[in-house]
Amino acid sequence: MIRRALFASLALAPITIAVHYAVHPSETVEFVLAAISLIPLAWLIGEATEHAAEHTGPGIGGFLNATFGNAPELIIALIAVNDALTDVVRGSLTGSVVSNLLLVLGASLVAGGRGELDRFSSFLSLGLIGFATALFLIPSVPGWGGDPDTHGLAQVSVVISVVLLVVYVIVTWFSLRRHSAMHVDSDRDVDGWSLRGSLLVLGAATLVTALVAEILVGSLEAFAEQVGLSDFFVSAVIVAIVGNAAEHGGAIVVASRGKIALAGEIALSSAAQVAVFLIPAVALLSWLIEPLSLSFRPVEIAALAGSVAYTALVLSGGRSSRGRGVALLAGYAVVVVGFYIAGER
């Protein structure tokens, strides 16, 4: 019954897009429509990823979900760069890493309960995020006492971005080879979608998700103003959650079906990919529009470092449980309160 309802509600996405361009409703109406439309899209991406993982294994399945799921965030960030909303860009990206580590992973563990996680892969992802956070200090610290958007800091950010992308390529190549070696192809026993069909659905769902997410972001500022929230809070919490809708839905769906390893890979791979691929990619691509410095606020650096350390502590045993999931969700609540108190720069 729920599955049929989700399939039927996929029609909300094209309706939302049509209403946006043809009717031009109020920002509040657009926000609500777009938010609801993202729910079945996130479910569809999770469904397609689960079928793809039957052919590739949980490690590569998590990588695929992270790659397709982070595409809307890249588009959202570049749109914000074009609108000169640099603090919104940085806030949404750091908020994305934190929400994947604490909110998505925590909700997945609550939905899945007891199970085994790939301890090596989990701590590899956490190590990547920790490494990226340390590098972000280089352009961030000078911006704490002055202008965070100087041309010099943007130039330093280019060097850091190149280093992170090189590390990302090397680690991803190693990780995918490891997961391929661990996974024994079982196509003859797979009754679900073909790998090609799963990838086509992932691509189409991601494209539509990007369009809907753009509409949602376009209405967020007006919506936030009505409820009295700061732009930073909107970007670091609301935009981050919206941009991660695919990972949120995908991880929770597969975790609820007992595939804890895949759910963990989705959340942690996505967080690591944002830190060492998406953030530097946005910084480099921004030079085609307006140079962006990776000068993050103290509260953002603290949230990144604290989330990595806290998640590593919770996952130290390599096992999942609902209690560990609740602990991660509680950690995210603390971060959200911190972002709320921080307000504007």
Q: What attributes characterize this protein structure?
A:
single chain, 345 residues, mainly alpha, two-stranded antiparallel sheet, 81% helix
Overview of the molecule:
With 345 residues, this protein is mainly alpha-helical. The chain has one domain (2-342). 81% of the residues lie in helices and 1% in strands. It has 13 helices and two strands; from the N terminus they run αααααβαααααααβα. It has helices spanning 2-9, 12-22, 27-56, 58-82, 86-112, 119-144, 151-182, 195-227, 231-243, 245-256, 260-285, 298-314, 322-342; strands spanning 115-116, 319-320. The longest helix is centred in the middle third of the chain and has 33 residues, at 195-227. The radius of gyration is 19 Å and the shape is globular. The termini are far apart.
Gross morphology: globular
The structure class reads mainly alpha
Strand proportion, as a percent range, falls in under 5%
Q: Cα-atom Rg, whole angstroms?
A: 19 Å
Estimate percent helicity. Answer: over 70%
Number of domains: 1
How far is the N terminus from the C terminus? 47 Å
Spatial ordering of strands, largest sheet: 1-2
Low-confidence stretches: 183-188
Number of helices: 13
**Main beta sheet:** 2 strands, antiparallel
Beta strands, count: 2
Q: Encode the helix/strand succession as letters.
A: HHHHHEHHHHHHHEH
